[in-house]
Structure formats: structure tokens, C-alpha cells
């Protein structure tokens, strides 16, 4: 072992085990991934900033600790990268926005800190839609991400850089954020596992806010076991985040191994058939979803019909609540305290010029929408009503889980689309979140896993989603592992890598 190609094909779990056992050094692993980044970034654009000096220093520290016989963390030597929404001390963090260009945080967020404490090696920061607002990574003043499965297509959003980097073997694990599907949708479009934990399961300290009652951090990986390994590091109460849950962190890897070995033992998988009849569901997506249900049945599950009566109202509800929270959270960017500042003659003009120059069109659109729904004249008709519907949606899921253990659906209604094809139609992009938004509104854990590919060229990935009750991550991971054990989709390489080979 040791050739770059062999190193890049190992899972995060495999890398951690090989480094712990002395078969690989963390330094040679880091160098292999940095070489991959250098080779692919000119065509991929997944990274906003690469941190080779930091990565090699962290890798050397892992090697020194192993030679000294010290205990190694669960991610010791594993190369990871962070969506640029996560605060990293001493490393520029922009949240994909020109208004934060050049901002170097003076503190370490919970995510970077916990990964470092677990021995992970940070390769850099990953491209994203500005402040997490988008589905294609095209809402950015920077270069948009290209999908490694088809470079002319989008990688999804807003965690598109995270998805592209993991799929292209430019990092072994990545961290994304999910406000309405921003981990799961790009995972679906790039043939990955993407896990959105229960709201509060992972700290939000150091994750730049979009919509605080919806945002949640989670891992993106090539295999279910890698996502479980990362979640075990990230999960747990944080005194710096009042919304984090003070609940025991179970053994997620044991749940994965049990699911892969033993199947699902009569677990009931609920399906809301009405959602499958809505306009816009791609035929290949529908076919791969049905095939995934068959795999889950082969693993011992039983598929049952459920109803989610307010499913069709989720997108509208989300875009009232998320924009309202965004208009409040983004008020802090004024050109005075940090980030970009436009020159002007007065304080008011400084505010106006900074926000005009620093925010992109989609961010401005959502701030305006959020400000409107929070006006005294509009509050009851929009924000107040949306909060009531959010409660109804959460009750729908609670009632559904009285009949089933997990809920299955497609992750995204369509596979990836060409770059630029939908950039002028924001409503069409909003509607692509119809399967993912409900879990955010209800605060539930959800996972997207590879389910196959489109039948016509270009051959594009398709994902299937599983949603569980609050804190049911072990059941989700076990079911995902049972599905993964019955197919080989996750082992396939993108065309970008095949061309390079």
C-alpha cells in the first residue's frame, strides 16, 4: 500500500485504520490528497482555499504521536475539508460571499475544533452558495463548482464544493450545512452519503448563520460508515450553543455494522405516495427510488403507505421562515465591524454601499422577502401563518412515525442539470427542495444515499432519502448500511477520475 491511487480509494475508516496500524503515514496520505487537489482544481473549483502547510503540519503531528505510542483520535490522519460556512481560526472564512472576503476568524468554531481534536487533517475550505442560499453553487461571486460526474453540470448546493471534493477524491470526508436540503441534495447529485442530523445533535457554534432554527451541520462521505465515524466526532452537547442537545452520543459505527450484517428485521419504511405523483419528478428518479424500496425489502424491511397531509405546503412555509430569519441574521454585515467595507461619505451610505456591493442577487432577494414578511402589516398573514403550518408539518411526521420506523422518498426530484440552465429561474430551484425541506422544518434527522444513475448520457447520480424520528440517527445509518450492502453504486468513480486514470 502507499501508491496515491490506492490511498485515494480507501474509505475514511480504512485510512484511519491503516494510519493507526502503521501501514500508512498521515503525511503520505496528506500529500496524496494535496496532489489530487492540484490536479483537479483547475476543472473542478471545489476549493475556495487550500491549506497545504496546515495539513502537512497536522499530518506530521499525527505521525509523531503514533511513533511515540500515544493514543490516536478516531479521525487521526484522515484528510477532511470544510464548507466555507464553518469558522476556522487563522483561515479565511467567507461563507461564499464577497462581503466576508478577506475575513480571518480569530477563534475556532466547534466543528474545526472537534475534527482537529479527533486527529483529522484539514485540507482547506470548500466552495458554496453565498450564505448557503442556493441549489447549484451558482449564487456566488466566485467560480461555481463543477460536478465531477459531468463537468458541464452543477454539483448541487449549497454544499456543492463539499460534494464535488468528496466525489472527486479531493478529500476523504467533508462537512456541509443543511438548512433545507443543502447536504442531501448535492450528495444525491454527486453519488454520496449526506447526513443531516437531528436539529441540535451537532453544535452550531462557529457555523455562520442563515436561518438559525433550521441550520444543521453534518458529514458528506462516500460510504455510510464514514458518515457515522464523522458524526460520532461531531455530535454532543456544546456549552457555546444553547440549542445543542444534551443527549448521550450512541455508537454510530456499531449501528452501521449491524445494519450491513443483519439487515432490517421487519422495520417498517413509510412512503407518502402522493408526493410521487407531483409534477416535476423525473422518470429515472422514480424508477431508482422504487428499486431502492425493493432493496430495503430484500434486507427485511416492510414498505407501508403513509400520509403527510401538509407536504405540498412545505416549500412555501420554508421560504417564509428561512427568509425571515436570514433578514435578521444578515443585518450584522454592515461594513463596520468585519469583512468588506465600501467607501462612502456617511455611516448610512457606508451601510448601503457595503451591502449593495457585498451581497449577491439571491441574498438580496431573500433579505427583501424576509424583511417584508416580518413587517407589522404582514407578520400575521405570512410569518405567523407559516409558523402554524410548520407545527402541522411536524405533527404529520409524528403521526406517520406511529405507523412506520423510517420514511423514504427521492432526495431530489431531478438529477443534475447543466450549469447556467436554471440560474435565471429561482422559483424552479426552490421547488427542487420539496423532498428535503420537511425534515428541516420538523428538526428530524435525514440521510441521502446513492441509488443508481440515469439511463441516458451523461450518466448522472441519483439518491434516495430516509428520514427518521428525532435522534434516530442509529436507525437511519443502519438502514442506509443495509441498502449499501446490497448494491455497489458507492464504489463507482466519476468520469473525471476515469479520464485522469
Question: What does this entry look like structurally?
Answer:
The chain is an alpha/beta fold. The chain is built from 18 helices and eleven strands. It has a single domain, classed as Amidase signature (AS) enzymes (Alpha-Beta Complex). It has an eleven-stranded mixed β-sheet, sandwiched between helices. α3 runs antiparallel to α4, α11 packs across α13 and α11 crosses α14.
* Low-confidence region ranges: none
| Radius of gyration over all CA atoms, rounded | 21 Å
Task: Give the tally of β-strands.
Answer: 11
Instruction: Domain count, please report it.
Output: 1
Structural class: alpha/beta
Write the layout of secondary structure elements.
Blueprint: H1 4-9, H2 12-20, H3 26-44, E1 47-50, H4 52-67, E2 79-83, H5 110-117, E3 121-126, H6 160-167, E4 173-178, H7 184-189, E5 193-196, E6 216-221, H8 224-234, H9 252-262, E7 268-271, H10 283-298, E8 302-305, H11 314-329, H12 347-358, H13 361-374, H14 380-400, E9 406-410, H15 426-431, H16 437-442, E10 446-453, E11 461-467, H17 473-484, H18 495-500
Parallel strand pairs: 2-3, 2-4, 7-8, 7-9
Antiparallel strand pairs: 1-3, 4-6, 5-6, 5-10, 9-11, 10-11
Helix pairs in contact: 3-4, 8-9, 9-17, 11-13, 11-14
Summarize the entry for a quick read.
By secondary structure, the protein is α/β, with parallel strands linked by helices.
